[in-house]
C-alpha cells in the first residue's frame, strides 16, 4: 500500500456527501429529540446527562462505518468489477474504515464515558454490539438494538452496575466488545474481497437486487428473483408480479387495477419477526419491576415500543413502492388512466399499512399478557383510546410523509423525508406520557387530530405526485 | 513454448441449487500471448460468465482457469495489475468527477500511463471536470475503457464494450484496439454481437453454443471451412438431398443451397460428378457463418482447434 493510494482512497470516501450529511442530520435530530426528553424528565435548572442523550449520538456515529462498509461492499465493490480487479484494493479501504470505526466506535464512546464518569467498556461494548447487529439487516437485527436502548432508560437499577462495569460485568463487556469487533472486522474483510461467492459470513443479503445496481450473475441466469426485505414484507412484489402477469396473459387488462389493489400484504409474516423484539421488551420490563412504579410500566412499554411498530407500518409500503419504480414504467402503460394507477398504488399502500399496524399491535398486546399483572394496573379504556387515536394519526402522518419521500431518488429517501414522522411517532406519546399521564387528554387529542389532518393532506399530495411522476429517466 | 495467457480447462459453471442452471458445460480454451480473441455466442450462451470466471469474479463450479499463471479465483495483486476489464454495463462512482476517478484508479497501478489516458480522454472528449453520475451511457462506457487501458494491461477482457457507443465512438474504440494489437505481447479477449467489428480486429474466434465451445480457431480458417454451395443440377433434386455434416440444406427443384462446415474442393468435385451439377462456392462473412451455425438442427463444427 502506498501513501498515494491512501490519499486517493480518503478522497474517494470523503467526496461522498451523502453519508456525512446523514451523519450530521442523524446526530442533530437525535440530540434535539433527546434533549427534549431530557428537558421534560429533569426539572428546569438542573443539569443531567441522561443515558439516552449519551447513547443515541454515539449510536448514530457508529452507524456511519456500517454504512460505509455496506455501501462500498455491496454497491461499489460487488457491483463494480473494476474495483474488484484493482490490485491492492482491500488494504487502503480497510485501513480507512478502521480509522473511521476506531474514531466513532472507540474514541467517541470513551470520551463520552469519561465525561459522564461511567466505564468506557460499557459504551464500547454497546456501540460495537450495535455496529455488529446492524451488519445483519433483519427485522430483529435492526430493531432490537433500538429497543434495548430505549428500555435501558427504564431499567436504571439494572443498567447502572453495567454502566460502571462492576464485578463480573467487566469481563462480560470486554467479551461482548471483542466478539462484536471481530464480527465487524470479518464482515469488512469479506466485504472488501470483491467476491459475490465464497465468503465466510452469511452474506446472502449482499446478493439482493434491492441493495445493488443490478442483478447478480446468478439472478440474471435464474430469472427474476424475489427481493425479500423486512420493509418489503408489507408489499409482496413477486405476488403482485405474478398476478399482473396472469392477467396480462389472460388479456384481462381492465382488472389490473383491481389486481394491484387486491394484492394482499404479508403482514403476519412481518409481525412474527417482532416476537423477539417484544419478548426483550417484556423481559426488561419484568426486570424493572422494582425500579419503576408498576402502575405506569405497561404504559411506558407501550409508549417506548409500540411507536416503532407504527413507524414500521407507516414506512414499509412506501419503501416497497420506491423499490417498485423501475417496474412502474411498464405497469403505467397498461390500459388504465394514470389516476387509476396512482389510486391503486396509494390505496394498497394504506391498506398494507393498516394491516401491518393491526397485526403488530395484536402481537404486542398478546405479549403484554405475559406481564406480571398482579403488580400492574391495566391501562384504562380512555388511555387505550387515546393511544389508538395518537397512533393512527401518526400512522397517517408517517404514511403521507413516506409516500412523498419515496418519490425522491434513492432507497433511503423514504426514511429521510419520513424523519418528522419518526419524531412524531416516537416523541408524541412519550412526551404526552411524561407530562401528564393522569390528566386531561384534550390537548394531545387536538394535536393528534392536527397530525391526522396533515397526514391526510400529505397522502392526497402523494397521490397527485405519484400520478404525475415521470418514469423511465435514470 | 510460451505458456498460454489464459488456460481454461473443463470449466463448468452452474447457478442455483435447485433447479440448477448449467451455463458453462466443460469449456476448454488455451489462449497464447498476442491473440485477439473474439468471443461469439447467442444471448445467454455464457460469454459474460466465461469472462467473469476467467477474471475470478465468479467461482468455477468445476474445472479450472489459469490467468497469467495464477488461478483465476485467487488472482494476486501482481496479476491484477496486468489485467484490464471493461464490463458490459460500466459502473463507477457517480459522486466523483471524471478526473478524480482517473486519479483514484491510477493510484493502484504502478505502470499507469497518464499520457495515454490524457490522449484517450481528449480523443473521446470526456469531460474531466464533470461528475460521473450524469454522464451518458456512451461516455460512461468510454470512461470504463480508458480506465481499463490506462495501465496498458497485458491481458484485456472486454464484454460487449461497444454496445453503448455511438458509431463514431465505436470507430474510435476500434482504432484504439487496433493500435493496442500492434504490441505482440498484448492479448485481448472480447465478446460482441457486432461481427463486423470482430472481423476487423480479431485473429481468432471462439464460438460458444449451449455452454460449450462450438469452434475455436483462426478466423480465416473458419471462413475457409464454412462455405455456401449453390448446386444447380440437370434434373430436379430429391427432397431427401443432403450432404453429411451440412449446417443447412435447402432444395428447390433442381437447385440446392447448402452451407457446409468442412469445405474442400474434393467435395465440390464430388457433387459435380455425382449430380451432373454446376456447383458454385460462395464465401460467407462471419455474421452469415454465425447464423448458419445457430440454425435449427445445425450440428456443431466437427473440429475444435
UniProtKB/TrEMBL annotation, chain A:
Upper classification of the organism: Bacteria, Pseudomonadati, Planctomycetota, Planctomycetia, Pirellulales
Annotated TM spans: 20-37, 49-67, 94-115, 121-150, 267-286, 306-326, 354-372, 384-404, 411-432, 444-462
Protein name listed in UniProt: Uncharacterized protein
Claim: Transmembrane is one of the keywords in the record: yes
Entry keywords, A to Z: Membrane, Transmembrane, Transmembrane helix
Keyword Membrane applies: yes
Automatic annotation (TrEMBL), chain B:
Pfam families the record matches: ABC_tran (PF00005)
InterPro entries (alphabetical): AAA+_ATPase, ABC_transporter-like_ATP-bd, ABC_Transporter_VariousFunc, P-loop_NTPase
Superkingdom of source: Bacteria
Keywords, comma-separated and alphabetical: ATP-binding, Nucleotide-binding, Transport
SUPFAM superfamilies: P-loop containing nucleoside triphosphate hydrolases
Gene3D superfamilies recorded: P-loop containing nucleotide triphosphate hydrolases
GO molecular function: ATP binding; ATP hydrolysis activity
Coiled coil: none
Domain ABC transporter: 6-235
Record-linked CDD domains: ABC_DR_subfamily_A (cd03230)
Name the UniProt record assigns to this protein: ABC transporter ATP-binding protein YtrB
Species: Lacipirellula limnantheis
